[in-house]
Amino acid sequence: MMISPRLSKTLSCVLLCAVTCSTVAVANAHHHATTRRQQIAVKDVDLKPYVENYAEVVYRNYQDAHTQAAMMKVAITAFLNNPNETSHKAAQDAWVQARKSYLQTEAFRFYEGPIDFVDAKTGEEGPEGRINAWPMNEAFIDYVKEKPDSGLINNPKFEISIASILESDQVTDEADVSTGWHAIEFLLWGQDFNNEGPGQRNFEDFIPNQNNNDRRRQYLTLVTQQLVSDLTFLEAEWKPNAENYRAKFLQGDPKATVGKIFTALATLSAFEMASERMTVALDSGNQEDEHSCFSDTTHQDFVFNAKGISNVYFGDYAGYQGKGFDELLAQMNPDLNQKITAALTTTQESASQIDQPFDQVLASAQGSPPRAEVEAVVTALENQGEAFKELGPVLGTSVEILAE
């Protein structure tokens, strides 16, 4: 389980308070009376420092995601320069490592920021669809079982270029994904027919001058470059002291901005994670509905998505610690702060206990212990989303759970 230092400190304080209050009833009553007197109203609060710290957390997270993806690109280049089992494994490991920072950035979606904006006039969209689209029809990209000639890679009429790859992305079917994390994942691991682990694609698929290997090598290189390019863009949009999205973000109405921030957290919790990524997969039992189905790292996705949500609330990321919303709520509504802190802890603890690999959870019988573990996470995420909604009236704004 990954819990931030501040969360750990907060939990310790909460536990200590609970023990003390349970043994000294009179002091307990006095404590609550004092707490109520100390609460402050939203009209007396300057939200701007908390919004500024949020922007800094976003920037540091995207900066890390960009750096990690660039390191993955180096590993993939080394693999293609010398394809063998060792370099293949190193490229796979780099993908797994790079995903950890990106998954935490998913807490910054759902309010049409740089990652997922839509320009109504031009039709231009943020890069989220190019970065992390799923579920994907892997046969759209490369060969699959019983279809050795399927996919863009094996179609000699298809020109392998980044322009043609992007033009082909999700055109007639949302599952016809041609780019992003999961396209790279499929190329590195292949289809997963292994009950005990991930896909078993052979490194020999990338040895030059054999069959369509050169086209596959070129495809992997191009989609990896595109991913790094998209993350470079996101980092730049949140860079401090620049004419970018961050500058406009900080000039907005603080209450409305805080509403966006917590709508994003509530939506990632109760809709994207609880519904789209867990409940849909549990209901279908289909491996195709698993988020990272080729590498068997779906459990990691859940853990680091939950970590990203916690980062925003506590205002920290990877050693950086700023002015978190927990500090604000501790003054405005201590009971709600403790409720959210407890919800974040429950979610992270329960997500870390999900069985691996996730496809075997989906294959297990209804009512099985592994399924019960995931259902417990679903409940925790739904409760967490509702707790974030309670912040709306406290902060003088609106917090919603969006369903796409």
Order of adjacent strands in the largest pleated sheet: 1-2
Mean pLDDT: 91
Instruction: Estimate the global geometry from the Cα principal axes.
Output: globular
Low-confidence blocks of residues: 1-5, 7-37
State the end-to-end distance.
30 Å
Q: Could you give a short account of the major beta sheet? A: 2 strands, antiparallel
- The count of β-strands is 2
Count of helical regions: 15
Instruction: Determine Rg (CA atoms, Å).
Output: 23 Å
Helix content: 55-70%
% residues in beta strands: under 5%
Structural class: mainly alpha
Question: What is the N-to-C order of secondary-structure elements (H for helix, E for strand)?
Answer: HHHHHHHHHHHEEHHHH
Describe the overall structure.
This protein is mainly α and 404 residues long. It is built from 15 helices and two strands. A two-stranded antiparallel ribbon has the order 1-2. Strand 1 and strand 2 (320-321) form a beta hairpin. Helix 1 packs across helix 2 (25-38) and helix 13 runs antiparallel to helix 15 (369-395). The longest helix is centred in the N-terminal third of the chain and has 34 residues, at 48-81. The chain is globular, with a radius of gyration of 23 Å. It starts with a helix and ends in a 9-residue tail after the last helix. Residues 1-5 and 7-37 have low confidence and may be disordered.
